[in-house]
Amino acid sequence: MTENLIGGSFPRIDGVEKVTGSATYAADMKLPGMLYARLLTSPHAHATIRDINTEKAKALYGVKAVLTGADLPYRVGLYMVDKPVLADGKARYFGEPVAAVAAISEEIAEEAVKLIEVDYEPLEPVLDAKKALEADAPLVHPDLDSYECIRGVFCPKGGTNIANHFRLKKGDAEEAFTRCDKIIENEFYVPQVQHVPMETHASIAHWKPKGNIEIWTSAQSPFAVRHLLSVALGMSQSMIRVVVPYLGGAFGGKAGIHLEPLVALLSKAAGYRPVRIVATREQEFMTLPCRQGLHARVKTGVNAEGRILSQEIEYIWDAGAYADYGVNIGRASGYSGAGPYEIDNVKMDSLTVYTTKPFGTAYRGFGHVELFWAIESQMDIVAQELKMDPVEFRMKNLLKPGATTITGEEITKYTGSVRKCLEEVAKEIKWGETCGDGGGETCGDGGARGRGESAPADAPTNAPTNGRHGSRSKGKVRAKGIAVLHKAPAMPPNTASSAIMKFNEDATVDLLVSGIDYGQGTATSLSQIAAHELKLPFERIHFIWNKDTDFSPYDWQTVASRFTVMGGLSIIKAAEDATRQIKDVAAEALNVKPDALEVKDGVVFVKEDPSLALDYTDVVMGYKFDNGNSIGGPVIGRGNYIAEGLTNLDPETGQGLPALNWTYGAHAVEIEVDTRTGDIEILKLASAFDVGKVINEGLCRGQVIGGCVQGVGSAIHEQYIYDKAGRLLNASLTDYKIPTVKDIPHEITPIFVETPHDKGPFGARGVAEHPMISVPPVIANAIFNGTGVRIKELPLSPERVFLALNPGRSKT
Amino acid sequence: MESSDMEITLTINGAQVTARVDPGLSLLAFLREHLDLKGTREGCGKGDCGNCTVLLDGQPALSCILFAFQASGRSVTTIEGVSEKERLAVIQECFIEKGAIQCGFCTPAMILSGKALLESNPRPSREEISEAISGVLCRCTGYQKIVDAIEEASLRQGGG
Predict the structure, then answer these.
(1) Are A36 and A109 within 8 A, CB to CB?
(2) pLDDT given at position A151
């Protein structure tokens, strides 16, 4: 079958392995002689390590290696090389690994960990990113100035807790505020949350006597692991092999490098025996990375017609103890941090700030879930102040062809249409009409028109008084909300991908790429692209699942919703290369010119006379003439792609071209708020994305539904909670709740807008992260429209909503 | 072998197994480490996430908080016992066709929970399906397609 390869709903190619339980994840693997590692973690958020005594642990039967930070003078990091393999003289967060043991069993390793004695001198913790900026704040990294980082892109400030300060200036925000009819300023807060993949981090490393290292690991990026490890250890990349088997969820938390250096060094210390570590769920929460917190301040100036003239934004990112990845979140959310709006005058400061908490890393949306909490809440507040419908207000200000982004990039007809997304979801939710059958419950539909009249005496301030929100006698209020979003892949401007297609004797094709399919379905959609481009039946494409730096072609990382685009473009080029080779050989065999030939379904034939044809099986290993003379040889297609046309951003003004492509989207929601409990039911969530071109509709819908529900987690359920000493209090799935099947919206309606992207494969753009973005503000906007209460801190937990609705009630 | 080990006999995926195990050994570790049945997954080890679900005498049970000896004399079904050789069970086919899978880590637990439900209630409502899988956490799919898949399996098996 070569018809309808693009746009259909092919079932995922890894289905059988997954429904039979035979898919192998890193923690399922066992190597001969393998040892088991366990970690000792810091009980303090901030402490000097005066001494560590490992004698008793080393003496325990079965213990093969014990390491502490003193043994490991290595630092790792993707953008900012700030992270020691084990705490180096100082613990910077509760849960930081301080020592590690490798032993012949998990039980013995755990027993040995308990025998390690650490003498800590507790230091004052730094638990608030805003306070971390104060002049007398304790320094999390006193030696910040000495760290390696990508200079010119990131700028750590020695003597402070600032890992990076991204600046952007477009126009003259200060001057423009003087021309505004209204200026509205608000602060918003997003706490740290976690990815919570069902598979915790797991790595196996085998340091070989020859000096080479083999690693099997739960990583999004085998080449990033190899590169960062080679830099940290000062080894050639050719001495390191990284293999990624099936991956049980990642969401950014397995990008970059994590436990791999530690297990590699344990393997060496244990006499070159392989060592495996599997993080406990508790360690997944407190030791491995989370998502950064965000303090946002947004000041928006509008004229009476509702045009945004000026915006001043300050993002203070709570990076936690390390910012090796976090600095780029601060940068990426800086250059896209005003949302998909056309604003001539913008001043942006995005600061990545160290605190003594678990560190943040990439998490689905890369800062955009957080920043859009601020932006899309603010846009509704501004519309409310203007007494303007939130859809109408956005339509006046959203980007359109001819407009420029805040970095000076011109929007074209190929960029995609956020307006179309908003129109689609507004239509789907029946914006402007009263809510569905609420059994007598009332509805705020988001129309802010008519607000600002006198509020009822018992209502909180800003209560909509358009008569729609009505009584709360039954305790339930229905309401609608809307929000928009955008995101581009956040990556270095020279990010690259490659693909190899190896023909087998029977004219099936081994497809090698190094994008990891941790559930998105990329392997299936890339196989579709390969089959389409080779004009071969889908069944003939054999996608090579395991990624192995020894065999797989290079790829930067599977992050940033970039792989269908960049991997897809590499595959298109590889298919062209392979087809050209096939045509060259067939042309000589058939005595015609290559361009007289066409290919289809594994046959190469003369266009003018299709009876002159060769089956691929006679060509792809070389063609043999009747007399035995042979030509050609095994066909191997090769393709690569590097992001083209991107630039570094000006360090002072943030101007430049950072985005390969923008994917726009919008959500509309109808909710029911139980004013007696603060509980929110999501009745319907409509979500539209301008994906350019749907490659696989079923998988695309799966991304949207899954992303939306993860967004509901960030919106309503999830947050890290600390005590005053900075100890994480909810490092378990009992105390940190992610959505269960009972927490999902009653209905999720994915909508795909297809404005082709001129550079994407078939016009496609990525959409893996986007569904999660702006889910929190769409719910908060609906809460406001229903109750008149504006909540500016996440999560929108029943407790927070109840207290906001009942300002007289105290927490106790 | 230590003197405190105890002998257990149980049926696993239809075959009788006898083994000597430490009394503290979890059923999950017994399945994964002793029998190499890796389709049963550990997501938390504390009974919170449900990813280690197996069927004990046909009922979903959390293998990470059961001792192996507690399964003695009983019948355990893991994901490896759901299909007949290479022929997938209807519920497995429905999971693939309905797109109820992403990373695949929770999939065995979801399928076993659905299978147990359909055996006791061949034509469940969507609410009943949700109830049956509510103890298993999934971070990828948003659950909707998992409910769709179990509902489809019910219809195909002629439930009701």
Answers:
(1) yes
(2) 79
User: What is the pLDDT at residue A331?
Assistant: 95
Report pLDDT for B84.
85
Which CATH number is correct for B90-156, 1.10.150.120, 3.30.750.24, 3.30.70.100, 1.10.3720.10? 1.10.150.120
Backbone angles phi, psi at B31, to 5 degrees: -65, -45
**pLDDT for the residue numbered B4:** 87
The CATH code that applies to domain A403-490+659-805 is 3.30.365.10
A13 in contact with B at a CB cutoff of 8 Å? no
From-to residues of CATH 3.10.20.30 in chain B: 6-81
User: Does any CB of chain A come closer than 8 Å to the CB of residue B5?
Assistant: no
Whether A19 and B95 lie within 8 Å, measured CB to CB = yes
Q: Which H helix or E strand runs over A17?
A: helix A15-19
DSSP annotation of A325 reads: T
Residue-wise pLDDT for A27-37, tens only, equals 999 999 999 99
Mutation pick from A198, A742, A775 vs chain B, by most beta carbons of B within 10 Å, is: A198
Q: Which of A461-475, B53-67, B140-154 has the lowest mean pLDDT?
A: A461-475
Q: Which CATH superfamily is domain A33-124+204-278 in?
A: Aldehyde oxidase/xanthine dehydrogenase, a/b hammerhead (3.90.1170.50)
- CA-closest candidate to residue A368, choices A286, A484, A259: A484
- CATH architecture of the region A495-642: 2-Layer Sandwich (3.30)
The yes-or-no answer to whether A403-490+659-805 and A495-642 have a common fold is yes
CB–CB of B137 and A199 under 8 A? Answer: no
Query: Counting Cβ atoms within 10 Å, is residue A480 exposed (0-12), middle (13-18) or buried (19+)?
Result: buried
Q: Determine the residue among B91, B140, B148 to mutate to test chain A binding: the one whose Cβ has the most chain A Cβ atoms within 10 Å.
A: B140
Side-chain half-sphere of A457: how many Cα atoms within 13 Å?
Answer: 0
Sheet containing A162-170: which strands, arranged edge to edge? A162-170, A345-354, A308-320, A293-302, A182-190
User: Residue A776 belongs to what H/E stretch?
Assistant: helix A775-787
The pLDDT value given to residue A469: 36
Contact: A19, B102; criterion CB under 8 Å:
no
What's residue A464's pLDDT?
44
- CATH code 1.10.150.120 region(s) in chain B: 90-156
Q: Topology of B6-81 in CATH?
A: Ubiquitin-like (UB roll) (3.10.20)
- Check if the beta carbon of residue A638 is closer than 8 Å to that of residue A622: no
Domain ranges of chain A: 33-124+204-278, 403-490+659-805, 495-642
**Which of A28, A706, A732 faces B102 most closely, judged by CB atoms?**
A706
Of residues A198, A701, A705, nearest to B103 (C-beta): A198
Cβ of A20 and B92 within 8 Å? yes
d(CA A273, CA A316) in angstroms, rounded, equals 44
Q: Where are the alpha helices (DSSP H) in A123-280?
A: 173-177, 222-233, 260-269
CB A683 within 8 A of CB A436: yes
- Nearest-Cα distance to chain B for A251, in Å, is 9
Say which of B39, B78, B138 has its CB closest to residue A198. B138
Nearest Cα neighbor of A698 from A15, A18, A196, A23 is A15
Residues in chain A with pLDDT < 70? 1-3, 436-473, 810-812
Size of interface A-B (CB pairs under 8 A): 162
Q: How far is B142 from chain A (nearest CA, A)?
A: 4
Cα→Cα distances A726→A156, A282, A489, Å: 24, 16, 33
**ipTM value of the model?**
0.98
B19-36 pLDDT, tens digit per residue, is 999 999 999 999 999 999
B149 inside 8 A of chain A by CB: no
B104 touches chain A (CB under 8 A): yes
pLDDT at A436: 64
